Amino acid sequence: MKNNPVQEFIDERRQRITLNGTNNKLLQAADMFNVESNKAQYSYNFSWMGRPIIQYPQDMIAMQEIIWNVKPDLVIETGIAHGGSLIYYASLLELIGKGEVLGVDIDIREHNRKEIETHPMFKRIKMLQGSSVDSKLVDEVRKIADGKETVLVCLDSNHTHHHVLDELIFYSPFVTAGSYLVVFDTIVENLPDNYLPGRAWARGDNPMTAVHEFLRSHPEFIIDKDIDNKLLISVAPQGYLKRIK
């Protein structure tokens, strides 16, 4: 049998990723960086195509890999902020040559709306203003999602347990088999309480606790541990949920 260097590289990479999960020194170093970088608001330092994107570069790479592999017809994101993530996902879909992004936010500030709507990638973006867990707004999302062959969902708005659990219940049905439901800021469970003063979420009340409760009654989703082992530095540990059926 002839050597296949492409497959050999893929296999070697898979082995390295698996070993990361048992590399205690690497895990400890990543944990220290995760804690200290979140305290320093590290994720606020980056932009994509001119718009602030409040994400870790590691999570951006993970989302690029997912979107390239899944090739969704629709990416739904709750939480818009400056719009950097919407534009990032839209630019990836532009390269793929299909798909649109739907952003939902309770308060799309006018200066951010203007910047998003005048951006070249806005041609692949739609936005809805309102609470992501308002049933009427969810109905609007459903109308847009209906008929889409492949749908990916990202949750990145209010990070309290109750709110994220409601989002998981409302938005998980939109996710198609083989695609992902990504829950950001699960890292809160691993950070010291009051790491950033004034936040409504904390240990025991955050996206990770919501994910754990959700998964107990939704076996159609699993945590993609390979992504966790690959990234190590991430705001979404145990938050990359793959729909397997």
Strand order of the largest sheet: 5-4-3-6-7-9-8
As a whole number of angstroms, the C-alpha radius of gyration is: 18 Å
What is the H level of CATH, i.e. the homologous superfamily?
Answer: Vaccinia Virus protein VP39
Give the termini distance in whole angstroms. 35 Å
General form: globular
CATH architecture: 3-Layer(aba) Sandwich
SS-based class: alpha/beta
CATH class: Alpha Beta
How much of the sequence is in beta strands?
A: 5-15%
- Helicity, in percent? 40-55%
**Average pLDDT over all residues:** 97
Q: How many DSSP E strands?
A: 9
**Total of DSSP H or I helical runs spanning 4+ residues:** 9
Main sheet specs: 7 strands, mixed
Listing every helix as H and every strand as E from the N terminus to the C terminus, the arrangement reads: HHEEHEHEHEHEHEHEHE
Low-pLDDT residue intervals, each spanning 5 or more residues? none
What characteristics describe this protein?
245 residues; alpha/beta; 7-stranded mixed beta sheet; two-stranded antiparallel ribbon; globular
